[in-house]
Amino acid sequence: KILILDFGSQVTQLIARRVRETHVYCEVHPCDVSSDWVRQFAADGKLKGVILSGSHASVYEVDDRAPDAVFELGVPVLGICYGMQTMAAQLGGKVEGSHSREFGYAEVRAHGHTALLKGIEDFSTPEGHGMLKVWMSHGDKVTELPPGFKLMCSTGNCPIAGMADEMRRFYAVQFHPEVTHTVQGAALLNRFVREICGAQADWIMRDHIEEAVQKIREQVGGEEVILGLSGGVDSSVAAALIHRAIGDQLTCVFVDHGLLRLNEGDMVMDMFAGKLHAKVVRVDASDLFLGELAGVSEPEQKRKIIGRLFVDVFKAEAEKLKASGQGHKGATFLAQGTIYPDVIESGGAKSKKAVTIKSHHNVGGLPEQLGLKLLEPLRDLFKDEVRELGVALGLPREMVYRHPFPGPGLGVRILGEVKKEYADLLRRADAIFIEELRNFTDEATGKTWYDLTSQAFTVFLPVKSVGVMGDGRTYDYVVALRAVQTSDFMTADWAELPYALLKKVSSRIINEVRGINRVTYDVSSKPPATIEWE
Ligand code: XMP
């Protein structure tokens, strides 16, 4: 196993993710664990190496140090950014603050042949120096090597950008190998973990399930858990995992707000209640939601109503379950499918954003209001890891690899006032679009267009246009198809879907969904448009 000590960098979990990708088991712990704790952690003889993360702070602002035991265990240690600085400071080198912050892309020159960097380079200079393209973010830097260390790499701005004591197998880099902008970052971490530490690549998703199950059981004990199931990937995987751990101590509440996709509610029930035999309460609240939305057309107002009602319904259900006391004392935990990017977003850059473009479905305040403790078993995982976990738990691939669906559902895909009639038309049109995206395969890649797009859906436009069908005139509604490609959903390009696919979808929708006589394709990128229309 590998121990990652977290000094508070935003990207510490990325280190863990890169280590997991090498199939080596790792654990992230706060940097202020004691030396005794570290020795205890290593007592089973399985600890193969330690990684010290970066920090958001400077060595002058904080006095976080690695527990001394880290350097006394005889295992390899890798310091990253702040981790390098604290390693230098603790082992007798010198660190200085600097006025010029280095932030972003940099080219690093490797010196000599250290076991860590040998043969790893992006290009070489005419003089034959190996060069690495990396991502840097630091103000302070090491200005004097600790005894026993030699220079491993440097940049113009940062003469000591990496150092190594190959006797003791201590390595450190000032740049961030864990981010993808550092082109050879994964190779470097792989080299450290597999070759220098000699850790075995025997960790697989199944092991993760075992560990996660164990952790949930320890945290929950004999108490009960309630979870809001939405049918989305994250809450579904969380539900399946928690159910695996504690069975009937988990109750899922599935709030059907009447704004779900075609047959979605039945599919969720079939999967969780039917196949997994989990306790699921389905609350049909569509009348309530549609009632409160009647006459409201302003997008933000619609979002707020849906968000508030969701919380109200969920709360009422939780109280009801408690009161019913069916042999239990009521839930003391609220489980959520929070994943790691959500954690970064809520604590990090997002809070600084000056304007709210869209108020997202937010159930953040729920645990306090309900007086419940939080259970978030997916907190450390990235989306693709959550998907892999879902498949390993036996959820159908189709469900786990679905495009994201917004919390307010079709409520933000019906422009203006939401009506049941509109929602019914939209559901049928959207199902046809998705079905054809799954039917059409791109020859070059062998993938379906569903898999080639990040998100695709149909939008209902409450305007009527004239058409002709058979011998008659029609005067019916319009829908827009939207399909985008994106890696982070912050920016997105509209997808260049094949004309044959668009043609098929258009003709099927107009022929099969009475009430829609025109189909358009949205060719706007984000920015300046957004992915959803509201
Ligand atoms: P926009 O429309 O802002 O969407 O470009 C970016 C991504 O966020 C999704 N989205 C939401 N997801 N609750 C969610 O859980 C919401 O209220 C919400 N609004 C938008 C959208 O589907 C896209 O993937």
TrEMBL record:
- Give the binding site residues for ATP: S230, G231, G232, V233, D234, S235, S236
Q: Where is the GMPS ATP-PPase domain?
A: 203-402
Q: What GO molecular function terms would the record report?
A: ATP binding; GMP synthase activity
E.C. designation(s): 6.3.5.2
Q: Which keywords describe this protein according to UniProt?
A: ATP-binding, Glutamine amidotransferase, GMP biosynthesis, Ligase, Nucleotide-binding, Purine biosynthesis
Chemical reaction(s) catalysed? XMP + L-glutamine + ATP + H2O = GMP + L-glutamate + AMP + diphosphate + 2 H(+)
Which pathway is it part of? Purine metabolism; GMP biosynthesis; GMP from XMP (L-Gln route): step 1/1
* Protein's UniProt keywords contain Lyase: no
Query: Which GO CC annotations does the UniProt entry carry?
Result: cytosol
Protein's UniProt keywords contain ATP-binding: yes
Question: What Pfam families does the database record attribute to this sequence?
Answer: GATase, GMP_synt_C, NAD_synthase
Positions of the catalytic residues: C81, H176, E178
Show the PROSITE patterns listed in the entry: GATASE_TYPE_1 (PS51273), GMPS_ATP_PPASE (PS51553)
Q: Which PANTHER family match?
A: GMP SYNTHASE [GLUTAMINE-HYDROLYZING] (PTHR11922:SF2), GMP SYNTHASE-RELATED (PTHR11922)
Record's NCBIfam families? guaA_Cterm, guaA_Nterm, PRK00074.1
Q: How does it assemble?
A: Homodimer.
Query: What this chain does, per the record?
Result: Catalyzes the synthesis of GMP from XMP.
| Name of the protein | GMP synthase [glutamine-hydrolyzing]
